[in-house]
């Protein structure tokens, strides 16, 4: 791996992993999918023209890879190859880790209840801290559309968290 | 509306260990990357050669076919029906249909073992058996027998989704299912290994007996949390009316290989026998469009496609699954319609293995989206009996809260106590439950 590519991976590993965790849901293996994202990104590196920031470009790759991973995962679950992940309560370990895993799974399940469009808007603005304008640019939709999606997404997410037994 | 809570953001932040693992994996993966292009090129070339070879060698017709209605004597000597189906066994059958549109035989007595080439031409194949059971095959190796009023299906290769009047189950390689008395419903099922099935045959993963859509908790009373207190409520009709025990697949220790094919055992409606003659592939394709729309979260399309599917294939193994997708899509489009659709689903498929999923969804939609405790409570009550784990605990909890709202203090007390005592109750629910419990009037002890 060249120094530039190594630096690229070092720089964005946490971002990509976080995006995958938030967009992918509890059924996709985040580290595997994040690795796929980098495989695609490094292969397409030469085609990056600088029309957007490197981070935006990488996010768009992540969106596509995650979407495919979710589809594959759903199909595998449909035909019965994959079962639901084991609940964290069955894992050994310190209680903090259990609680953390439980919370992450609950958030992922709640995000998973949203449509892709709503989930992406919520993740970019409320979780990643982008403005509606920035999120609109990243998702190639008008700023107003992001605001509308956010409104519905927040409501649905809060309801989903409540169903998880967690008050938002 | 405020932003989402800080803890939710923190919970989805990757840990340093996860990031480090990913960085190491990417570095390791990149070293192997240069070999990928030639590998894929080779695979592509080989695939192209195979396709060309297949096209050159593929049979152009069905070949000799028995006249419809003619008897078939099954023996160790294979009877070939078309280029992809070979039958052996010990019994008597009748060829009902044999040709490029599909092959259908009726097993009168004895045993038929079907070897169907999963990649072959004209492989659509159905065995009708007594007891309104039909075995439709896309490609696998399996045996159907009907001897002394006892029927059984045994799968040697591939996977089988069994849908019969009492519900649906999934069988993997090495498993079997039986029925008797001419009616598949209400009979004890039998699971036994099939001799010779372990020779490289794919197996089901853990949990493979789950329904094909959104497999979650099985509606098996034995799966209830043993620590959960009994409420003493009458068991719901669906739970008691489902004596068929879903076959328990053997657990595969590792991720299983892809099966070579899928077989579908499908219950028939005697009044509509033409359904079995419809192309399984057409049905699968129509269902695939429902699934695609659902996966792409095109909810309006999902509703539309599922409704069209149900109008065309109102019975069969995929109808409950299509109905489930319809409900799932409707909850995004129109929660009130979703509640109605779920109620209709529950009334139609009383013993389907997805019942636990649907009854819980019906309850939570009514409770969360419509704030309708009167509708939600009966479903939560049923869910307490047919779900397990966290979902069962939450069913007790929400049933208790609904009962309190509806003014049924006794039911509220029992349900909330059951929820609090449940080992799988999510801790964040505890304070609200304790507050609700404390606000209930004290039980009068006579």
What report would you give on this structure?
The complex is a heterodimer of chains A (168) and B (446). With 168 residues, chain A is mainly alpha-helical. Chain A folds into two domains: 1-85, Rna Polymerase Sigma Factor, Chain: A; 89-168, Arc Repressor Mutant, subunit A (Orthogonal Bundle), CATH 1.10.10. Chain A has seven helices and no strands. Chain A has helices at 3-24, 30-44, 54-79, 95-112, 116-127, 132-139, 143-163. In chain A, α1 (3-24) packs across α3. With 446 residues, chain B is an alpha+beta fold. Chain B has three domains: 1-57; 71-209 and 246-277, Jelly Rolls; 283-312 and 318-439, Alpha Horseshoe (Serine Threonine Protein Phosphatase 5, Tetratricopeptide repeat). Chain B is 40% helix and 19% strand. Chain B has helices spanning 6-11, 16-32, 36-57, 237-240, 280-295, 299-312, 319-333, 335-348, 355-369, 373-386, 389-406, 409-421, 430-439; strands at 71-74, 79-81, 85-99, 102-116, 125-129, 133-137, 141-147, 150-157, 159-164, 167-171, 176-180, 262-267. In chain B, strands 1, 2, 3, 4, 5, 6, 7, 8, 9, 10, 11 and 12 form a twelve-stranded mixed sheet that branches. The longest helix of chain B is centred in the first third of the chain and has 22 residues, at 36-57. Chain B is elongated, with a radius of gyration of 26 Å. The two termini of chain B are 49 Å apart. Classes of the chains: A mainly alpha (168), B alpha+beta (446). Chains A and B meet through α1, α2, α3, α4 and α5 of A and α1, α2, α5, α9 and α11 of B.
Helix content of chain B: 25-40%
Oligomer: heterodimer
> What CATH architecture label of the largest domain in chain A applies?
Orthogonal Bundle
Number of domains of chain A: 2
Can you tell me the CATH class of the largest domain in chain B?
Answer: Mainly Beta
Number of strands of chain A: 0
Overall radius of gyration of chain A: 17 Å
């Amino acid at each position: 791996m060249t120094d530039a590519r190594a630096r690229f991976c070092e720089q964005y590993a946490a971002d990509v992993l976080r995006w995958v965790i938030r967009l992918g849901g509890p059924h996709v293996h985040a580290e595997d999918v994040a690795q796929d994202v980098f495989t695609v990104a490094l292969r397409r590196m030469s085609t990056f023209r600088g029309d957007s920031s490197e981070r935006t470009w990488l996010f768009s790759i992540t969106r596509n890879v995650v979407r495919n991973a979710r589809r594959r995962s759903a199909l595998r679950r449909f035909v019965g190859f994959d079962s639901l992940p084991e609940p964290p309560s069955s894992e050994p370990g310190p209680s903090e880790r259990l609680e953390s895993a439980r919370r992450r799974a609950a958030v992922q399940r709640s995000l998973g209840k949203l449509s892709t469009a709503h989930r992406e808007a919520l993740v970019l603005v409320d979780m990643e801290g982008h403005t509606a304008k920035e999120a609109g640019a990243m998702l190639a939709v008008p700023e107003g559309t992001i605001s509308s999606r956010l409104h519905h997404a927040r409501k649905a997410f809060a309801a989903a968290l409540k169903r998880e037994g967690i008050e938002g | 509306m405020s932003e989402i809570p800080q803890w939710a953001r923190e919970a989805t932040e990757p840990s340093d260990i996860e990031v480090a693992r990913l960085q190491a994996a990417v570095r390791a993966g990149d070293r192997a990357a240069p070999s990928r292009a030639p590998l894929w090129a080779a695979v592509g070339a080989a695939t192209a050669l195979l396709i060309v070879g297949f096209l050159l060698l593929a049979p152009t017709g069905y070949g000799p076919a028995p006249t419809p209605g003619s008897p078939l004597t099954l023996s160790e000597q294979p009877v070939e029906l078309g280029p992809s189906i070979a039958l052996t066994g010990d019994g008597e059958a009748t060829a009902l249909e044999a040709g490029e549109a599909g092959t259908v035989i009726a097993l009168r007595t004895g045993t038929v073992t079907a070897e169907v080439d999963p990649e072959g031409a004209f492989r659509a194949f159905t065995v009708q058996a007594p007891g309104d059971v039909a075995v439709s095959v896309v490609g696998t190796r399996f045996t159907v027998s009907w001897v002394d009023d006892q029927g059984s299906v045994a799968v040697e290769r591939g996977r089988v989704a069994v849908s019969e009047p009492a519900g649906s189950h999934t069988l993997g390689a090495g498993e079997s299912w039986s029925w008797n008395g001419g009616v598949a419903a209400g009979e004890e099922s039998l699971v036994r290994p099939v001799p010779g099935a372990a020779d490289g045959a794919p197996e089901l993963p853990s949990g493979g007996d789950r329904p094909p859509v959104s497999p979650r908790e099985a509606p098996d009373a034995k799966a209830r949390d043993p620590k959960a207190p009994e409420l003493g409520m009458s068991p719901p009709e669906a739970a008691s009316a489902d004596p068929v025990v879903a076959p328990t697949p053997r657990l595969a220790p590792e991720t299983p290989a892809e099966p070579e094919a899928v077989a579908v055992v499908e219950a028939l409606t005697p009044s509509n026998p033409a359904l079995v003659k419809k192309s399984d592939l057409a049905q699968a394709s129509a269902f695939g469009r429902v699934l695609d729309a659902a996966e792409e979260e095109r909810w309006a399309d999902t509703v539309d496609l599922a409704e069209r599917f149900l109008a065309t294939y109102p019975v069969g193994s995929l109808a409950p699954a299509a109905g489930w997708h319809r409900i799932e899509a409707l909850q995004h489009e129109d929660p009130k319609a979703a509640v109605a659709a779920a109620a209709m689903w529950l009334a139609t498929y009383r013993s389907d293995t997805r019942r636990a999923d649907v009854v819980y969804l019906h309850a939570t939609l009514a409770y969360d989206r419509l704030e309708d405790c009167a509708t939600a409570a009966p479903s939560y009550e049923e869910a307490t009996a047919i779900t397990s784990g966290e979902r069962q605990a939450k069913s007790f909890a929400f049933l208790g809260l609904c009962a309190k709202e509806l003014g049924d203090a006794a039911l509220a007390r029992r349900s909330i106590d059951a929820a609090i005592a449940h080992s799988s109750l999510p801790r964040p629910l505890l304070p609200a439950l304790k507050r609700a419990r404390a606000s209930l009037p004290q039980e009068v002890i006579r």
